[in-house]
Amino acid sequence: MVGEEGAFVLSWDEVLTEEELSVTLKVLCMSEEEFKEYKAQDGWEDNSEEEENSTLSNKALSRLKTPCKKLLYDSVLLTLEAYRSDLKAEQDLLNNKEAYEKLSRREQQALHVRYGQKRILHQLLELLQ
């Protein structure tokens, strides 16, 4: 369901892999009976009204059903735990000019990427609370 990478792509404003995340959340939050029906039908029939309502902007994420919100929230927490440091540690390193300049160019770029990823994930946690 999530493609080859097994990950969802998020931006500041929306989920960029919204179809994959929407389907994944729906399937994972189904009852056993709903899942059996889903499998029997080879997924859902195309329903343009449902598609319009499934757009996963940041506003829409905050309106997800409670089980889906909890699943996504817990997934974000697990993702954040995979990092070696937290958001504050990255921010402190970015603000410490002396320590930052000791990093190689590649390490500086990696720091900026990690910091951006963590900020997006923390924003998502706030939306899902």
Automatic annotation (TrEMBL):
<dbReference type="GO" id="GO:0032259">
    <property type="term" value="P:methylation"/>
</dbReference>
<keyword id="KW-0539">Nucleus</keyword>
<feature type="domain" description="Rubisco LSMT substrate-binding">
    <location>
        <begin position="4"/>
        <end position="121"/>
    </location>
</feature>
<dbReference type="InterPro" id="IPR036464">
    <property type="entry name" value="Rubisco_LSMT_subst-bd_sf"/>
</dbReference>
<dbReference type="GO" id="GO:0005634">
    <property type="term" value="C:nucleus"/>
</dbReference>
<keyword id="KW-0949">S-adenosyl-L-methionine</keyword>
<dbReference type="InterPro" id="IPR015353">
    <property type="entry name" value="Rubisco_LSMT_subst-bd"/>
</dbReference>
<dbReference type="Pfam" id="PF09273">
    <property type="entry name" value="Rubis-subs-bind"/>
</dbReference>
<dbReference type="GO" id="GO:0008168">
    <property type="term" value="F:methyltransferase activity"/>
</dbReference>
<keyword id="KW-0489">Methyltransferase</keyword>
<keyword id="KW-0808">Transferase</keyword>
<protein>
    <recommendedName>
        <fullName>N-lysine methyltransferase SETD6</fullName>
    </recommendedName>
</protein>
